[in-house]
Amino acid sequence: MQACRVLHAFVCSDYVWHRISIDVPIDILPDVNIVSLPSSILQPIIIKALRLDDNWRKREPDVRYIMLSPVWVLNQSATIGQLQFIGKNHVLSLSRCYHHHELSFWSLEQPLCTQPNLTIRTMPMIRFSVTMFSGDSNGVIVFLGRDEKLYTISLKTLTKQPSKLPNNLLIQGRVSTVETCDHIIATLVAQISPSSGSPRYTVVFHNLVSSRSFIYHYPVSSHMCRLQMRLYPSCFVIVQCPEIGEGDVLVHVHALPPKIRINDSTPLQETTVMTGDECRLLAEHVLSRNPGLCEWFIPDEPVSEFPSHLPLIIFQQLGGFTRTIGLVYQIPMNIDERTAETYHHKPTHTFSTEIETTPQIVCIGKTGLRAVWLDKQFENEGPKLWKATFQTGMAAAVTPLVAPHQPLPFEARMVSTLRFEEATGRVAVGLWTGAVYILEF
């Protein structure tokens, strides 16, 4: 009996739980170090993560539905354009009506909600981004339309309209990406040259504390047809996709100059233009693929910590658009800042989609272990929702999001946008009707 007590005390100790190898996403706040958590708190978190992983892999998973349906959707034409989870119990939705757009904060504590906690009516916007501070209770939301607007938000006082922050930065060009990390906002802007017709790309950084802005003119080859950005605490990543048959997908990791992160409250009078030496190239990753049409996706979940890898998924169309191959990459981010190296990568996982389908809306988790997507059928059969698991050392597992005999409370053809939170297994689904469903695995 004494030996059992000693063994039980040992397996419940911090020493043991801090040394367990965990290969599933863990649901903890981004600014919390897992080693700092005592075993009494860490144990239920890991058990919950393992149960979620088991349920996610099932062909017939248990799914809980939460419906967020404003009463006015029956009387107006509205479309959900973007969704984002905020904290543990809130989701933010962008509804596009005919004359205006609305940003709504919803509580997830009720299985059916017909009234948002807060609604902000705005002029037409492209998209938004949110960064949270103070343990996921306070943050800043970025609106991107004709210009950039910043508002402070607090989940503790969602009944009050948010306060607008001063921002004199005018975004000129077509915005392709907006990223937020800690107190830094980064916007990737494309400007089309009237003479050549080729785009010039600019990365605009804005420090929320110092109110300073910085511009970096990003050099890019003319044959690159699509760029996307990811912002981290000490670097930013640009992913470049070439035109059909022009070559490989390139991932460039650049240094984030320290002066951007200086939180000096005395703002500069002018926007600072940064040089290539300040935003120097730290690493180039080359992702080999077959020639032909492809679409690629990186995570869109907010981050505040520096990751070990950047996941990326490529969907490559082969055989006269009748077959699509999925290629999953894990790009290491442990960079030697002393030298800029070039690395060549092969996919960690490869899988095929159904015949004559191609993924249309794709969300990959920030660790790259899970993904969800909506496919598009080339024939008359309607679209379908899928989920996937990309476990290290195992083959990719792709199954329907829910079992065929478990009908969804909406039709897949009505889906306008998706949002995926990997660590919690929550999938937010926005519809063309203006309704939102939360699927909890």
From TrEMBL:
Protein name: F-box domain-containing protein
Lineage: Eukaryota, Fungi, Dikarya, Basidiomycota, Agaricomycotina
